[in-house]
Amino acid sequence: MRKRINLVFVGIVLMGLTACDQIKQKEDLAETNEVATTLETPVKSILTAEEQADMSPAEIIGRLKKGNENFVNNNLTRRDHSAQRREAMIGQYPQAIVLSCVDSRVPVEDVFDLGIGDIFVARVAGNIENGDMVGSMEFATAVAGSKVVIVMGHTACGAVKSTIDKVDAASLRMNSLQALLEKIEPSIQGVETNGERSSKNVTFTNDVIEKNAIRTVKDIRETSPVMAAMEDKGEIIIVSAVYDMETGRVTFHDHDDHNGNQTY
User: Fold this and answer.
1) Nearest Cα residue to 231 out of 261, 210, 187
2) How many alpha carbons lie under 13 Å from residue 41 in its C-beta half-sphere?
3) pLDDT tens across 66-109, in order?
4) Rounded average pLDDT over 42-57
5) Are residues 110 and 94 in contact, defined by beta-carbon separation less than 8 angstroms?
6) How high is the pLDDT of residue 87?
7) What pLDDT, on a 0 to 100 scale, did the predictor assign at position 207?
């Protein structure tokens, strides 16, 4: 009889311990879910005029570099695009404008972990400068308050490779494309290589891609006295960069303004 009572007592104790353990597990799970919910709360706001005004050009580039790290590490910020879209109806205060190639493999906003209202994006094959692009940049900076202009080339650029290989687009009755490739042509001049001067030479091609982005920055400064003056005053930075499609990393080139002054 006593043995039976002891067994019943042990059973009650074990049931109690199991119940306590289950309660503890539920509490731990609830706490974990609460933390996860907090971490995963999507961003609903967009940049305000005050936030745009408070950021310096160098600070903006620092933020873009951090955003690119998030992209490289597959750690993009969660955003509530519906909420951001509604808020953006009030106005826009982007921090930068990026001139990128049309290449579909270069998702500019994602590359910098940005959302609605964060940046202007202009696209043209080979990320070249032309009147419409410079006009768009003048609007973005002098009118809308953006403080950074980035000309971003990318590895394996088809427009640059076609220019290097002297593709004759005109013979295919694509005269506009031919005119575009001719604007890239000067970037090939002066690029040295020990190998063949063709797009099969990846190092040579990447050197041309980099030079093309740098030369486009120079062209923008020469074409727009307004932006050149703003850069002189430290109000904006115009800088080149290259996106590596394999790694996802953006490399910013050392920045000198058109007077040769190092700004960051």
Assistant:
1) 261
2) 7
3) 999 999 999 999 988 888 888 788 889 999 999 999 999 999 99
4) 90
5) no
6) 76
7) 97
Structure tokens at 198: 């063709």
What is d(CA 237, CA 142) in angstroms, rounded to the nearest whole number?
12
Structure tokens at 71: 């992209």
Give the Cβ contact number of residue 58 at 10 Å: 15
262, 255 Cβ separation under 8 angstroms: yes
Angle between the N-to-C axes of helices 225-232 and 131-138, in degrees from 0 to 180, rounded to the nearest 10: 40
pTM for this model (two decimals):
0.81
pLDDT confidence bin for 38, thresholds 50/70/90: very low
Strand pairing partners for 243? 154, 250
**Per-residue pLDDT tens over the stretch 101-133:** 999 999 999 999 999 999 999 999 999 999 999
Residue 77 to residue 73: CA distance in whole angstroms:
11
